[in-house]
Amino acid sequence: MHKLRKCSTCNAYTLEEQHCGKETIAAHPPKYSPKDPYGKYRLKAREKQWTNLK
Ligand SMILES: [Zn+2]
Asked: Separation of 16 CA from ligand 1 center, angstroms?
């Protein structure tokens, strides 16, 4: 199982060891965080997905 990593250069989540020509850092599993500008969009997308399942 791959561990989620994050590029400290462009802030993209990736499974690659390298991104933007630099080594990536280990990232926590994606979850909502006020510090994460994409967190709420991810949460919204998940809510939408759950809604569609019903
Ligand atoms: Zn990058």
From this structure: 10
> Which pLDDT tens digit goes with each residue over 2-39?
688 999 999 999 999 999 999 999 987 556 566 666 66
Residue 46 Cα to ligand 1 middle (Å): 24
Using the mean position of ligand 1's atoms as its centre, give its distance from the Cα of residue 22 in Å.
Answer: 8
- The number of domains in the chain is 1
Q: β-strand 22-23 against 18-19: which pairing, if any?
A: antiparallel
CA 51 – CA 18 distance, rounded (Å): 36
Q: CATH number of the domain at 16, please.
A: 2.20.28
The residue ranking higher by pLDDT, 19 or 49, is: 19
